Amino acid sequence: MSIAFVILCILTIASAVTAMTLRNLVHCALAVSVTFAGLAGLFLLLDAQFIGFAQILVYVGAVAILIVFAVLLTRATQAPGESSFSTNWFRGVVVAGAVFGIVAGALYPSKVLNGQGSTATVSVRQIGDRLMSTYILPLEVLGLLLTAALIGAVIIALQDSEPKGRGPK
Q: How far apart are CA 108 and CA 49, in angstroms?
């Protein structure tokens, strides 16, 4: 076990616990961003380059920034004395324990835990070559679908921001 792995594990766990315990939502969102970055570093250390880079691009680059902006933009609507946390934390612990039990039960009989997992390695270049040759049509369709969804979201957001009593000029 390398020292970098241990440092990334400690950083990831500490930032995840920090995200769960802080009361300031902006600080929680920033701690979640550090958790995502730590997970990406762990994936890169484990020679899963594609997953590590996808984690950086998607979660650190997009989802974490979206969370920060959403918290900053919607925080003003919350009453100042209102608590950000639920009083039913025990139910959350029970649900988390049940999910952990289900996932652990599904992973227990797997070949990976017994050391019989696949040793085949796939590089990011091989995935990119396959996406740009064999799967180019599904990739382009997915790009068009995401672009259409983005344009639709912008149109819906613009319609909601117009005053309701007045029509377009």
A: 26
Name the residue range of residue 136's domain: 123-164
- pLDDT > 60? residue 54: yes
Query: Does 4 share its domain with 68?
Result: yes
**Does 93 reside within a domain?**
no
Structure tokens at 13: 């766990």
16-55 per-residue burial string, b: 16 or more CB within 10 A, e: under 16: bebbeeeeebeebbbbbbbbbbbbbbbbbeeebbebbeeb
Tracing tokens 């259409």 back to the chain, one arrives at 148
Quote the number of domains for the chain: 2
The C-alpha atoms of residue 58 and residue 52 are separated, in whole angstroms, by 10
68 with 131, same domain? no
Same domain for 1 and 70, yes or no, is yes
> CA 111 → CA 42, 48, 58, 101, distances in Å?
22, 19, 29, 18
Contacts of 26 (CB under 8 A, 6+ apart): 68, 71, 72, 75
In this structure, is residue 96 part of a structural domain? no
Give 154's contacts (C-beta < 8 A, 6+ positions apart). none
- Model pLDDT for residues 104-155, shown as the tens digit of each residue: 888 887 766 666 666 677 778 888 888 889 999 998 998 899 888 888 877 8
